[in-house]
């Protein structure tokens, strides 16, 4: 059977899409709008997804770059990526009530940074410069943290005491990329300590494992996700490294180029951890209209983790914000 006569199919990754931290953050914005009414200000994008941000804006969320942009007496929410202590201070100084929607897995890394800094360790934070999560974690212990942006950055790293060095990482990195950097660091600093538990987010890991499975069987891999989503970008990279001849990141089905389908019988499809499934459904419809109606689920893990909503949603934050202005 020739490639062109083989039946066209889609291999759909499972798990894909929303992780527990993203689900919690998006629901937190929706609940805040229901309970307190619009506007609810959100510092930076609540999660890195264009569709989610646009949908929440229509409901009354206002996204700002800094807490200092929010008028006194309002409510501001911090995104799933986490913020530095200085941002909490800015909000307090600006007389704002706050909701912290930081993913609990990111909060864990923040707590590790604080603990190791108190013990006077040099902390080597593996991550991408400028990413919101890296900025937030670094802000917990700026005098102790050195950013290591990939294995090629290791040569530049210096520490005060090689017997008191620990590594932490941005949660949304590729597992393979992180361990390559860790191996290079261990070669330079043999006494390097690993964190008590793996910092790489379970959802990031699971989605990358599924992508590797797809990449071995598909001529084209499509990842639904935004260009500023670290975990979505990593999924495309992982697909290519795992042998997919072609892989692309798209926000919407309309961004798919039909030329990508030339000679392709099997399309692998997944989505980043901040992507609602409605966007994947649109891609499936788009592919079905072009003959890829046969969909097979490729399941590599079960996900059942959920996080409780931010505790601040149990309080009357509008009243608290009004009181702050009176003080």
Automatic annotation (TrEMBL):
Q: Which Pfam families match?
A: LYTB
Q: Where does (2E)-4-hydroxy-3-methylbut-2-enyl diphosphate bind?
A: 48, 81, 131, 171, 229-231, 274
Its protein name is 4-hydroxy-3-methylbut-2-enyl diphosphate reductase
Q: Which family does it belong to?
A: Belongs to the IspH family.
Question: Which amino acid positions bind dimethylallyl diphosphate, per UniProt?
Answer: 48, 81, 131, 229-231, 274
- Tell me the residue numbers annotated for binding isopentenyl diphosphate: 48, 81, 131, 229-231, 274
Q: Which residues form the active site?
A: 133 (proton donor)
Which GO biological process categories is it annotated with? dimethylallyl diphosphate biosynthetic process; isopentenyl diphosphate biosynthetic process, methylerythritol 4-phosphate pathway; terpenoid biosynthetic process
What PANTHER family does this protein's entry cite?
A: 4-HYDROXY-3-METHYLBUT-2-ENYL DIPHOSPHATE REDUCTASE (PTHR30426)
Identify the cofactor(s).
Answer: [4Fe-4S] cluster
Which reaction is the catalytic activity of this chain?
A: isopentenyl diphosphate + 2 oxidized [2Fe-2S]-[ferredoxin] + H2O = (2E)-4-hydroxy-3-methylbut-2-enyl diphosphate + 2 reduced [2Fe-2S]-[ferredoxin] + 2 H(+); dimethylallyl diphosphate + 2 oxidized [2Fe-2S]-[ferredoxin] + H2O = (2E)-4-hydroxy-3-methylbut-2-enyl diphosphate + 2 reduced [2Fe-2S]-[ferredoxin] + 2 H(+)
Q: Which GO terms describe its molecular function?
A: 4 iron, 4 sulfur cluster binding; 4-hydroxy-3-methylbut-2-enyl diphosphate reductase activity; metal ion binding
Relate the protein's function as given in its record: Catalyzes the conversion of 1-hydroxy-2-methyl-2-(E)-butenyl 4-diphosphate (HMBPP) into a mixture of isopentenyl diphosphate (IPP) and dimethylallyl diphosphate (DMAPP). Acts in the terminal step of the DOXP/MEP pathway for isoprenoid precursor biosynthesis.
Q: Does the keyword Hydrolase apply?
A: no
Q: Which UniProt keywords apply?
A: 4Fe-4S, Iron, Iron-sulfur, Isoprene biosynthesis, Metal-binding, Oxidoreductase
Enzyme Commission number, as recorded:
1.17.7.4
Q: Which organism is it from?
A: Streptomyces purpureus
